[in-house]
Amino acid sequence: LSIPMPQWEPDTIFLIRVGAVDVMEILHVLHQYYSKGYTIFPNVPAIKHCLEKGGFSDLCKQNDIKTPETTYFSKTDEKHWKHFPFWEWGQCVIKPSQGSLGDGIYCVEGTDVVGRIEQIIKTQDEFYEYCDIIVQQRIVNKKNIPESIRVFCFMGEPTCSITLTNSVLDTVSNLHKGGVAGPYFPDDNLKEQCRKICKATGIEFTAIDFIQDQQGNYYCLETNVAPHVYTAFGIYGGKINHPKMIFNYLLDKSKKDSIIL
Q1: What are the angstrom distances between the C-alpha of 35 and each of 30, 119, 176, 228?
Q2: Which helix (H) or strand (E) element contains residue 95?
Q3: In degrees, to the nearest 5, what angle opens at C-alpha 209 toward C-alphas 203 and 213?
Q4: In which region does residue 14 sit, left (phi positive, over 0), alpha (psi from -120 to 50) or beta (all else)?
Q5: What is the spatial distance between Cα 54 and Cα 70, in angstroms, rounded to a whole number?
Q6: Which SS3 state, helix, strand or coil, does residue 37 take?
Q7: Three-state DSSP state, 39
Q8: Distance between CA 4 and CA 223 in Å, rounded?
Q9: What is the C-alpha R_g of the chain?
Q10: In the chain, what is the straight-line distance between the N-terminal and C-terminal CA atoms, in Å?
Q11: 157-165 and 133-137 beta bridge pairing
């Protein structure tokens, strides 16, 4: 993207394959290209819907999609976070409002949330430097371990799903934090939740993270703008090939060399 815009052919396709932190750094450039008619995949409005976790939670609630109880605020909004009744939620999860690959996420009792936020501010926690703070009620699953369900979706339809599991109680279920992936077969209810999320955000390809509580209810945690594509490929023995789906969708013979990763 350091190459001046006029040097790109009008039919160039830009396929976003970097993490949320990096996407935030180039979002203003992507918006410029998108507004000039270049194809950005996934599209820029969808990226914006998914990047900010607080706004995404609001969007889910507007579309009758379950998410954990959530509040978000800037570090300077002491009136909010010093007086919010976090203790009513029991266990809570504190995390940055933007993607961090599982870093900077803290699982604490509701009574300890304010103290942890004060520590985040005092130590200038690097994962909160340029974003807001999110606090959510922690959903405990039947196994009582950090385990989430990740459902890959392409063009509004679920394609496959996996579980992300970590046996350490005070960590998150993230591959970058030692999590282990395995196959998962979603029921019709979970598939329908995914369709609603894809429709609400407008995202063409994503992986949506859920957690299932002890009563079997699914709660959406977030949706990823550039999920890893080879984990599912390996788990399902090459039967699920998301790169091939994406390239077949984006490219035809007249554009076979015009894609930029």
Answers
A1: 9, 41, 34, 27
A2: strand 91-96
A3: 140
A4: beta
A5: 8
A6: coil
A7: strand
A8: 31
A9: 19
A10: 10
A11: unpaired
Query: In whole numbers, what is the pLDDT of the chain averaged over residues?
Result: 88
pLDDT tens for 8-66 read 988 889 999 888 878 888 999 999 999 999 999 999 999 999 998 899 999 999 999 99
C-alpha to C-alpha distances, 143 to 93, 120, 139, 212, 253, nearest whole angstrom: 18, 30, 11, 10, 49
Which residue type, as a one-letter code, is found at position 19? Answer: G
Amino acid at 152: F
Report the run of H or E that residue 233 belongs to, with start and end. Answer: helix 230-235
Q: What distance in Å separates the CA atoms of residue 244 and residue 228, rounded to the nearest whole number?
A: 14
Residue type, 104: G
Pairing of strands 259-260, 13-15: parallel
Tokens encoding 48: 């914006």
